[in-house]
Design brief:
This protein has about 130 residues and is mostly helical. Helix content is about 95%, strand content about 0%.
Length: about 130
């Protein structure tokens, strides 16, 4: 009878799924559930660590790109300063040449007036000499 009872209990377990009949079975079932939960938590932790590592790598990459762009920006600023200095030097040279040109123009006007005055004096002297 006991063998038949065990046989029917086993069949009942198989038909109803796992049916807990003893405290030991309940404990074993609880341990299996906890193991499954621990495994799931380990998988989630592994995914989270992988995500964290990926974000860290992306952050490192972005920092490298920012440093590269900052370096390029510094180079461009340096080039711009050099070009500004060169432009300022050229502007100074241009201003000096314009000043010299202006002075030469004034001297030319003065010399032309002096020439006209001397030509007038010469013409006056020649006229006087011709009259004498």
């Amino acid at each position: 009878l006991q063998k038949e009872l065990l046989k029917y209990k086993q069949e009942a377990r198989n038909l109803q799924g796992i049916k807990i009949t003893s405290p030991q079975d309940a404990l074993q079932q609880r341990l299996l559930q906890q193991d499954a939960s621990v495994l799931q938590l380990k998988q989630e932790l592994l995914r989270a660590n992988m995500d964290k590592e990926e974000l860290h790598n992306q952050n490192v990459d972005l920092q490298r790109k920012v440093e590269e762009r900052n370096r390029l920006l510094a180079e461009y600023k340096k080039e711009l300063c050099q070009k500004d200095r060169h432009l300022q030097q050229q502007q100074t040279k241009l201003d000096e040449m314009l000043r010299q040109l202006s002075e030469a123009s004034y001297q030319q006007v003065d010399l032309e007036r002096e020439l006209e005055h001397k030509e007038a004096l010469l013409a006056h002297c020649m006229k006087r000499e011709a009259e004498e």
